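call fold(seq) -> tokens
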Amino acid sequence: MHTLYRSVRERWAQHGPIAVLHLGDDVMALASGRSDQAEVVLTFSLGLRQLVAEVLTHTPPTPLQLELAIETVEEQVMPAHTALPPDAALVTQDACLWQWAQAMGWCVDVDQELSLATLEEGFNLLVAHAQGRPASVAGVPSDPRFAATLVVLRELMHHLHFKRITLLAPA
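ret:
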């Protein structure tokens, strides 16, 4: 995670504290700091594969599964809310998050900032799909991994008080 943090810090030359998100199949991690070295590294024993295998088992996920996914993510991230600088900018260069945002039409080929409000809109579409609206009308993929990514990102941003995330385009 320290290497990923340094890579993002070099590439995204914003001043001030950053929190670099890695959302993997088996683990989620955040590395945060104000300089070239991460000062805090948080690792969560939750990944996309686990969330899909254990909670979001239907395609599309059911409303109850979405609620259980939210609870699962909250249990992981809520205790970390005091560990990060309150003014840190959330940044990721994870390809899975870039592809997820492209599926929603939110990213083209340059770095993209997404607000929490945008994620809420996407989550509302996901809920409508879970409640029976066809994917073509709801505007979201039916894939449970897509749902897992959206739920994790939404809950992480809510509970760790991030207003936006910057998705760095794949190099």
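The mean pLDDT is 90.
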